[in-house]
Design goal:
This protein is mainly β and 229 residues long. The chain contains one helix and 19 strands. The chain has two domains: 89 residues, Immunoglobulin-like; 105 residues, Immunoglobulin-like.
């Protein structure tokens, strides 16, 4: 008799579980979400991002909301457990994923949006050629090479000698190496300043690097031509 009761109990449990599974197949119990709305996909450090999600519940009961940011930086202002949220971007630039999870008594659903926090530091610029103090004479070709880079990309890279703009850089094929050439002339005689400036997207101030070189003129005398500093 005990075995019969046990069998009936197991059979009843099986029927209940089967009906529950069938019910899940007939009706999707997950919260239904519309696309997350975000005030800005690209923001500066300390900007406030407003985000919201519209959700409907296919079953009776309330919905629970939970927002999170990955990596966990910046700060949520106010509650992060409603259908909208405010997040203050951190000073660290990079890509962040804002995610919301919505639960009812049976299931959960989630949505996410990527936010880029701009890097506001100036571009890094490093003159590789010529070396500090290199010597040239009028008419000689000056080859300039520099590395310039920034996480937000560069809008332009320029070279100057004594504040005079040098021709546009040669193609550097995405390596971050920029090359320029110019001919030493009389305006450079003496100590000449070589400067490279690089402007990043979305950052106001360019980055720069500079070195001094020496340029000598040509003096013709009774013993022929010679260089003169």
């Amino acid at each position: 008799m005990f075995t019969s009761y046990k069998f009936l109990a197991l059979l009843l449990l099986f029927i209940i579980l089967s009906c529950s599974g069938l019910d899940d197949l007939i009706m999707d119990r997950h919260p239904q979400l519309e696309e997350m709305q975000v005030s800005g996909a690209r923001v500066a450090p300390f900007d406030t991002v407003y985000a919201s999600i519209k959700a409907t519940n296919p079953i009776d009961g309330i919905l629970e909301f939970k927002w999170k940011i990955d990596p966990d930086r910046g700060n949520f202002v106010g509650p992060s457990d409603t259908d909208s949220v405010r997040w203050v971007a951190p000073i660290q630039g990079g890509f962040y994923e804002l995610k919301v999870t919505v639960k009812n008594t049976a299931k959960q659903a989630s949505d996410a949006s990527q936010i880029e926090v701009l890097v506001t530091e100036r571009p890094i610029v490093d003159i590789r050629k010529p070396a500090l103090g290199d010597y040239y004479v009028i008419g000689q070709t000056i080859s300039i090479e520099a590395r310039a880079d920034h996480a937000n990309g560069l809008s332009w890279v320029q070279a100057f000698i004594n504040d005079s703009l040098v021709a546009a850089p040669q193609d550097q094929n995405g390596t971050g190496i920029y090359q320029f050439t110019c001919i030493a002339d009389s305006t450079m005689v003496g100590t000449a300043e070589v400067k490279i400036k690089a402007k990043s997207n979305y950052v106001a101030e360019p980055g720069s690097d500079l070195i001094d070189i020496q340029v000598g003129g040509i003096i013709t005398g009774k013993h022929g031509s010679k260089s003169n500093n």
